């Protein structure tokens, strides 16, 4: 990239053709915040790239709103259809009330048994691929952890899980270059209708489970509608499936490419907790989140007008050399837990504990039963300007 040349951040192809981290390094030093024009009639937007500016922006939820949407592509084309109903796309005071409710789904009482199952499942999945020759880690291992975990968290009946997984795959198909928007839209509607039916059923037949809790607890003096219950259940899949999968796949890829770090983890030179944080920093599955300015304000001395879209590039923040020295070195012993992989401030990821537990279970199962991890083919990159990661990873575990 020549100096002064900007990449088109609205185009998913940009992130496959270029190494975004090279771009961010140059941009952080030369244009830490800049205005990005969009193609056609789409609105332009601000691009914020430095760690401290992004952290400050995340904290400023009062004037940098999530309600219209938090993903660039959605904001360029209108408003998020779940606006004001789904946790991630609400503002205070409703956000705080909904969040208090949703956090009950992540209490130690609920999470204890869920995490235990994650550990068992991960151990047996890893054991099943040791010494089998080349296999696709994405399909054989990573795919089976997060969705099953979310189904456990929500007590989805066993008989419904295959259908839910099938819809979820279709719903995500828009991430490939062979976009079939209609199929994925139908699948998303199927998931929301499924959760609406389940919400109705659990209201009539209450149990000791998370959906019953969400459906039967009053928020600001009223129960959530069936649609709100459904959207917030779905938000756990939207928030927790791909992001966790991408961390696991990206983590194994980094271990295969850095055998010295793999040896350090196995030898206990790097602790499991530090390794989890470094993998999260290194991969940064959610490349950006976005906000809309509610008033005229300033970020890093730059005037932002009310109504402007502001994009916060976590990928860039997590490589900011003023916070993470030598950021392009994968160093499992690094103290990297300040990373912004889970966001920051009032919308900080409610699933962070679970996301970390899934990765910890993976790294500990690998350290326990795998001596060497080798790449054996080319991984395929996800086609997206929001999600970073790989949809396949051919490897060999010995
Ligand atoms: C919020 C990333 C795992 C559910 C967020 C945010 C980020 C993030 C960056 C902040 C969004 C914003 O500020 O607008 C990740 C990553 C994960 C992960 C990288 C895995 C490594 C999970 C899991 C769940 C989950 C396992 C649920 C089971 C959510 C929800 C929100 C959220 C519901 C919205 C919180 C709010 O707006 O108050 N996540 N997440 N995430 N995440 Fe996660």
From TrEMBL:
Instruction: Tell me if Heme is a UniProt keyword of this record.
Output: yes
Signal peptide segment: none
Q: Mind listing the UniProt keywords for this protein, alphabetically?
A: Heme, Iron, Metal-binding, Monooxygenase, Oxidoreductase
| Keyword Hydrolase listed | no
Family per UniProt? Belongs to the cytochrome P450 family.
The name this protein carries in UniProt is Cytochrome P450
């Amino acid at each position: 990239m020549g100096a002064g040349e900007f990449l088109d951040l609205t185009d998913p192809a940009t992130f496959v053709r270029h190494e975004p981290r090279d771009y961010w390094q140059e941009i952080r030093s030369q244009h830490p915040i800049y205005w990005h024009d969009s193609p056609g009639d789409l609105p332009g937007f601000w691009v914020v790239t430095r760690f401290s500016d992004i952290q400050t922006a995340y904290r400023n939820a009062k004037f940098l709103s999530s309600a219209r949407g938090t993903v660039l592509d959605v904001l360029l084309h209108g408003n998020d259809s779940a606006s004001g109903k789904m946790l991630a796309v609400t503002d205070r005071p409703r956000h705080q009330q909904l969040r208090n409710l949703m956090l009950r789904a992540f209490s130690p009482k609920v999470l204890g048994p869920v995490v235990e199952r994650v550990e068992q499942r991960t151990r047996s999945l890893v054991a099943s691929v040791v010494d089998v020759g080349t296999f696709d880690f994405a399909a054989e291992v990573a795919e089976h952890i997060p969705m099953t975990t979310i189904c456990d968290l929500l007590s989805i009946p066993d008989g419904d899980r295959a259908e839910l997984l099938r819809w979820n795959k279709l719903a995500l198909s828009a991430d490939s270059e062979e976009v079939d928007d209609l199929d994925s839209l139908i699948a998303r509607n199927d998931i929301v209708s499924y959760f609406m039916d389940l919400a109705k059923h659990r209201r009539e037949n209450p149990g000791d489970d998370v959906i019953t809790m969400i459906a039967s607890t009053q928020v600001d003096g009223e129960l959530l509608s069936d649609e709100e219950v459904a959207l917030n259940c779905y938000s756990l899949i939207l928030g927790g499936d791909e992001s966790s999968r991408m961390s696991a796949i990206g983590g194994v890829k980094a271990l295969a490419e850095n055998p010295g770090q793999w040896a350090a983890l196995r030898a206990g030179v790097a602790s499991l907790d530090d390794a989890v944080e470094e993998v999260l920093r290194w991969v940064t599955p959610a490349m950006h989140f976005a906000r809309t300015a509610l008033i005229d304000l300033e970020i890093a001395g730059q005037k932002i007008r009310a109504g402007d879209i502001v994009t916060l590039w976590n990928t860039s923040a997590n490589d900011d050399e003023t916070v993470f020295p030598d950021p392009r070195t994968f160093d499992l012993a690094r103290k990297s837990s300040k990373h912004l992989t889970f966001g920051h401030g009032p919308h900080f990821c409610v699933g962070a504990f679970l996301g970390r537990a899934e990765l910890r279970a993976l790294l500990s199962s690998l350290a326990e039963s795998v001596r060497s991890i080798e790449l054996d083919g080319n991984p395929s990159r996800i086609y997206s300007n929001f999600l970073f990661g790989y949809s396949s990873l051919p490897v060999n575990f010995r």
